[in-house]
Design brief:
The chain is of the alpha/beta class. The protein has helices at 27-40, 44-58, 74-82, 97-108, 145-158, 176-192, 197-207, 216-226; strands spanning 64-68, 89-94, 116-120, 131-137, 159-172, 214-215, 230-237, 240-247. Strands 1, 2, 3, 4, 5, 6, 7 and 8 form an eight-stranded mixed beta sheet that branches. Belongs to the class I-like SAM-binding methyltransferase superfamily. Cx-SAM synthase family.
């Protein structure tokens, strides 16, 4: 079993760049990703912990759990830790080969009866199998907007009755004043966590073309259009939110 290397401190955007390239989940990001996401996303640790607790409640015996856009497997491992139903298989999927390679090392280092399989694939193209829980933890915002409804509808179709989708996303607001305020509060959060003005500015520029975010209303309507009748926003901090969408018996 390979030892897990400690996460490096995120300094990807700490030096002035002549040209800020589009953000990519490459080896440079993989090396610092745990530090990056915890210093950039308010409440991230709480979201991961709650995903594990939701798995305790909703994962059904002899079913699959999908972690779509699994990055380094934090959500997959939270499910593994808290799910004690027999015959469960966790499948983490990411389209970054650098992420997948490191993620496999991480999940192999954790003991437990629930197997975790990590795959390198495009989540908009894979064939999902019947499952009782699906996780999209800050993933949908990187999917082409025209493909988002189709993906959510495919997830709904494969979920078991009483199955659960967890959707976490950065969101925008129709009210420009409110949007500006929450963006400013988020940037202050990053400064408070040690990021410089240069880092905040360059990271924002890098994400501009690759992370296209929706409003809360659009997210919730998309879930309802897919067929979910129970949609609940359970977490909110600044412009970050997480929902649970439950497929009830009547949603078949």
């Amino acid at each position: 079993m390979k030892p897990i290397q400690p996460s490096q401190r995120d300094a990807v955007y700490s030096q002035p760049l002549d040209k800020v390239s589009d953000f990519a989940f490459d080896a440079n990001v993989v090396n610092v990703f745990p530090d990056m996401i915890n210093r950039s996303v308010p409440g991230y640790a709480n979201i991961i912990h709650t995903i594990g607790r939701l798995a305790e409640r909703y994962v059904q015996a002899h079913t699959k759990v999908y972690d779509l856009g699994c990055s380094l497997g934090a959500a997959s491992l939270a499910v593994k830790q808290h799910c004690h139903q027999p015959g469960v298989e966790i499948i983490g999927i990411d389209n970054s080969s650098a992420m997948v390679e490191r993620c496999q090392t991480y999940v192999n280092a954790y003991r437990g009866d629930t197997p975790v399989q990590i795959q390198c694939a495009d989540i908009t193209e894979i064939e999902l199998e019947p499952c009782s829980m699906v996780i999209l933890n800050f993933t949908l915002q990187f999917v082409e907007p025209k493909l988002r409804q189709q993906l959510i509808s495919r997830i709904f179709a494969q979920l078991s009755p009483n199955g659960l989708l967890v959707l976490s996303e950065k969101i925008r607001h129709d009210d420009p004043l409110a949007d500006e305020l929450l963006i400013d509060l988020h940037h202050q959060f990053k400064r408070d966590n040690g990021y410089s003005e240069l880092e905040v500015s360059q990271k924002r520029a890098a994400l501009e073309n690759v992370m296209r975010i929706d409003t809360q209303a659009i997210q919730e309507q998309r879930l309802r259009d897919a067929g979910f009748s129970t949609v609940q926003n359970w977490f909110r901090c600044f412009n970050f939110a997480s929902w649970v969408a439950i497929k009830g018996q009547a949603d078949e």
